[in-house]
Write a structure and sequence with these properties.
Layout: E1 2-4, H1 12-22, E2 29-34, H2 39-48, E3 50-56, E4 62-68
Parallel strand pairs: 1-2
Antiparallel strand pairs: 2-4, 3-4
């Protein structure tokens, strides 16, 4: 699943992403595309134990791949 958050004003990208993460099962992945690096989201992902990787895109946006890992 990919969520395109480009063009949205904060906190909408984070709210949309967290809502999708709450529905994920262990081992599932999600990709989001944001206009900027989601610094506050990184903190939340680390606290919740998600794996994440950020890739800058050619258009200046960022693709963040997020995987839910088991407890």
């Amino acid at each position: 699943m990919i969520i395109d958050n480009r063009g949205l004003e904060p906190p909408q990208p984070m709210m949309r992403t967290l809502k999708a993460l709450d529905k994920m099962k262990n081992g599932e992945s999600l990709a989001i595309i944001n206009d900027r690096r989601p610094m506050f989201l990184y903190e939340e992902l680390n606290e919740r134990g998600y794996l994440h990787e950020t890739e800058p895109q050619e258009d200046g946006s960022f693709k963040i791949s997020i995987t839910k890992i088991g407890d």
